[in-house]
Each structure stands twice: as C-alpha cells, then as structure tokens.
C-alpha cells in the first residue's frame, strides 16, 4: 500500500517536473533569408542543431529571399508570443516598424550574420563578422600577391542592399585605394548564387576581350566565385592563374577549387552564429544579463598554402 502511494506520488511529481520543463521550454522564431548559398544552408543546419542541443523549440521560416516574407514571419512570431526572434535580414533597410512591434511586445530580437540600418535599441544584439574587414582582407591579399603589375578587377557583388554586399565592397575598395595599378573595371550583383555568378562572369568575359583584360575576380561569396570559375574555364582560360580568384565564406567546395589551383584565397565566415546567439539569449532570459550590441565572429584568410584538401575533409560534413 505504502509502496503504491509512494509510486503514485513519484508519478505526480514526475509529471509536474515534466510539465514544468515543457511549459518553460524557450520558443524562438528564426526568420532565415533562404538558401542562396552553401554558407546559408550550413547556417540553417547549425542553428537547428544548436536549438535541438539546448532544448529550444525553434520555429523556422524560410523567406525565399523576400523581405516582405521576413516581415510577415516576424509578425507571426510576435502574434504567437515567442520568447525571442532570430533574424537574418536580407537587406539593411525597412525594418524599423516590425522591430518596434517586437519591442512593444517585449520580444528580444537577435540579428544573425547581417546588420540593419535601424536604431540599435530595436534589437538585443547582432552576431556578425566584421563585414568591412572581410572585404579588406580579400583586397589586401590581392594587393600583396599582384605587386606592381597593372590589375583590372571584376567584382561580383552580393544581394543589392544587403549589408554584406555594401560592406564587403567598401572594405575591398579601401584595401586597393592608393594602389594606382588596381582598378575595378566591372561590378555587378550575382545575388550570392552560383548560377548568377556564372551568368554575370560570362558577360564580364565577353565584354573584356574574352577575359584577356581581366587580372582578378573578387566575389562577395564563394558560391558566386565557384560559378565564375566554371565560366572562366568554359571561356578557355585558367581560373587561379589567368584570372586570380578571391572570395569570402570558406565553404567546402572552394577548398576543392583551391586544391585544384582554380581559386586563390577565401575569407572564412563561420556558419555558427546561433551558438553565441543562444548563449547570450539564455543568460538574458534567465537573469536579465544584457549582452554587448555586437558579438563579432572571426574572419580567417585561407589560401592554396593552407592544405585545402585537409580543410575540405574537415568541413565537408558540417551541413554546407
Ligand atoms: O550574410 C552572409 C552572406 O550571405 C554569406 O557570405 C553569403 O554566402 C550569404 O548568403
């Protein structure tokens, strides 16, 4: 009898504990841009893994590259009363109203990998790389490796109006400024995709004497560089030699291109933005610890000298 009631008591206690922990599970809405690049696919995978590891209930919304879809997703998260929102903003501007709505609802918003042109009291923190610095690192690599020869550069920009496209252009231009032998002769968006990178590079090659006038390609991400590499090969030139290739992200495929001598340098962007974001969010929700407004991730340069085959092996199963 006593054993029976002790067991019954334990069951009640267990179910209270269980329902308390279920009731207190943190719910986070994640508005992702889409899946334009290998890097972004990895960021999505890592965010889902990090949430699962921590018992966070993640509500995922893919915006298919459209800001209006992101705004709708944010409004739906607010209506559902989530505990927090992760936002990877497709473009920089146009966020003020919806961020105000989240603020009024006391829902903290964390920006992932891109910044917005809005007052910083509208979000809790931003987990990003130094996007200008990335462009600068790419430009400095080119300046150091080309030396005094004249070098006409073609540039594949990221999504128009996005913070990485704006900042990576700025940083690269800063690095080549003052070096009279460097000039960006063509610059166009490739939307951060492989297909568009190839298409735009084909038009650059046609317009520039089949590529004979081009010394280097600077692409705001590896996917566009990989598409462009294909275009350069199809034009009968050797990427990495006839046209130098420098880009950003450090996705596994670019390491294969580095190993084959078809790419020259890439600047790494970690896809793990969610880890630091969830760390500060958990502290904020548990005891109100306010994080710094910017949590900066590292930007490491890789070249053909960095054992690209080995790096490819390390990275190939990480969700890219
Ligand atoms: O915001 C980060 C950029 O967005 C990545 O460099 C690019 O690949 C992407 O899609």
TrEMBL record:
Keywords of the record: Signal
Species of origin: Chelativorans salis
Family indicated by similarity: Belongs to the bacterial solute-binding protein 2 family.
Protein's name according to its UniProt entry: ABC transporter substrate-binding protein
Leader peptide range in chain numbering: 1-25
Entry-linked InterPro entries: Peripla_BP_I, SBP_2_dom, YtfQ_transport
Gene3D superfamilies linked: 3.40.50.2300
Domain Periplasmic binding protein: 29-284
NCBIfam families given in the database record: YtfQ_transport
Location of this chain's protein in the cell: Cell envelope
């Amino acid at each position: 009898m006593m054993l029976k009631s002790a067991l019954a008591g334990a069951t009640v206690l267990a179910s209270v504990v269980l329902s308390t922990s279920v009731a207190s599970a943190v719910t986070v809405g994640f508005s992702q841009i889409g899946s334009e690049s290998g890097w972004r696919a990895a960021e999505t995978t890592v965010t889902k893994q990090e949430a699962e590891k921590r018992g966070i209930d993640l509500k995922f919304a893919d915006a298919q590259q459209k800001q209006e879809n992101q705004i709708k997703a944010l409004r739906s998260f607010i209506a559902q009363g989530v505990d927090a929102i992760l936002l990877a903003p497709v473009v920089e501007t146009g966020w003020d109203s919806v961020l105000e709505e989240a603020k009024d609802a006391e829902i903290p918003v964390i920006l992932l990998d891109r910044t917005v042109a809005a007052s910083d009291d509208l979000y809790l923190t931003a987990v990003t790389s130094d996007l200008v610095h990335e462009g600068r690192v790419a430009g400095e690599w080119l300046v150091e490796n080309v030396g005094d020869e004249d070098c006409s550069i073609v540039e594949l920009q990221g999504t128009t109006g996005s913070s990485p496209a704006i900042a990576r252009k700025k940083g690269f231009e800063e690095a080549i400024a003052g070096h009279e032998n460097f000039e960006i002769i063509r610059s166009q968006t490739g939307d951060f995709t492989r297909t568009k990178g190839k298409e735009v590079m084909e038009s650059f090659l046609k317009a520039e004497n089949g590529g004979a006038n081009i010394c280097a390609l600077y692409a705001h991400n590896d996917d566009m560089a990989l598409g462009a590499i294909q275009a350069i090969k199809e034009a009968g030139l050797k990427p990495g030699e006839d046209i130098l290739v420098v880009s950003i992200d450090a996705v596994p495929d670019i390491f294969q291109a580095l190993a084959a001598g078809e790419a020259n340098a890439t600047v790494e962007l970690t896809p793990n933005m969610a880890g630091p974001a969830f760390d500060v969010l958990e502290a904020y929700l548990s005891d109100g610890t306010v994080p710094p407004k910017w949590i900066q991730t590292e930007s490491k340069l890789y070249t053909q000298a960095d054992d690209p085959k080995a790096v490819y092996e390390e990275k190939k199963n990480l969700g890219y």
